[in-house]
Amino acid sequence: MKKIFDEVSLKCSEITTKHYSTSFSLGIRLLDKKIHSPIYSIYGFVRLADEIVDSFHEFDKAKLLNEFKENTKQAIENKISLNPILNSFQKVVNKYNIEWEHIQDFLSSMESDLNQKKHDEDSYKQYIKGSAEAVGLMCLRVFCNNNNKLYNDLEKYAIYLGSVFQKVNFIRDISADYNELKRVYFPQLNINEFNEEEKNKIEDDIEKEFSLALIGIKQLPKSAKKGVFLAYSYYYSLFKKIKSTPADKIMTKRIRIPNFTKFLILIKVQLLNVFKLT
């Protein structure tokens, strides 16, 4: 029965999410149970594409990514795939009317990681548009449950949230991206001259987007509000730790939030009256 295969597919996406991301998994725990499955499915899809470009160095990554893109298209059109992650993802795309534009933007950003090592202002914005903003908009489709007016009202805030998460990831991973993958995402940045002044410019931009994103979180449906606010709280905690770390230290280690601190943030958000976020 296909129902069994669909359940197995979803389980693959859930296992993928929990194995790769503690913080994302914690955020899903505070979402309403009815939207756990679609968010697991979106993350599983995103994670699989990201692994192709970041991890499969001994294989033809361009070929794998192109095959993945074609298989994604076919899965959505046929409403089934023998790839469990894609089978799980296509159900969400079709149920919540997620636009192919967002999926295409995401895959284009992944493709750029194969060859583009440095960015100017335009390519930087385009990368963020695909890599994080598009994923935020996919999730927003689920949160709004086909309420197009609500989606349109919150769209710009979801873009801010996706953007700020991505920029925090960029500065957290600046050392690994350069030393291991030879990538520099921040436009016109000479990595060998990364100093407090450059770091402060990046942080000022990030701080503004955190403030704008919070406006949208307060307007989310109750079913999604706490889960998204938990992710926001985790990233803001990580950002504060980055701000307190000197630029030269950022270049030598990856800043992390200990699991114990993540669970403290989880408890704090769980105890928060959701209406205080309105």
Q: How would you summarize what this structure contains?
A:
The protein is 76% helix and 0% strand. It has 278 residues and is mainly alpha-helical.
Features:
278 residues; mainly alpha; Farnesyl Diphosphate Synthase; 13 helices; 76% helix; globular
User: What order do the SSEs take from the amino end to the carboxyl end, as H and E?
Assistant: HHHHHHHHHHHHH
Number of helical stretches of at least 4 residues: 13
Helix content: over 70%
Supply the number of structural domains: 1
Mean pLDDT: 92
Briefly, what CATH class? Mainly Alpha
CATH topology: Farnesyl Diphosphate Synthase
User: How large is the share of residues in beta strands?
Assistant: under 5%
CATH homologous superfamily designation = Farnesyl Diphosphate Synthase
Give the second-level CATH assignment, the architecture. Answer: Orthogonal Bundle
Low-confidence runs (pLDDT<50, min 5 residues)? none
What is the CA-based Rg, rounded?
Answer: 18 Å
Structural class category: mainly alpha
- The shape, in one word, is globular
Biggest sheet architecture: none
The count of DSSP E runs of length 2 or more, i.e. the number of strands, is: 0
Secondary structure: elements and pairs:
Elements: H1 2-20, H2 22-29, H3 36-55, H4 61-78, H5 84-96, H6 100-115, H7 121-144, H8 148-172, H9 174-181, H10 196-217, H11 222-243, H12 247-250, H13 259-271
Helix pairs in contact: 1-3, 1-5, 2-11, 2-13, 3-5, 3-6, 3-7, 4-5, 4-6, 6-7, 7-8, 8-10, 8-11, 10-11, 11-13
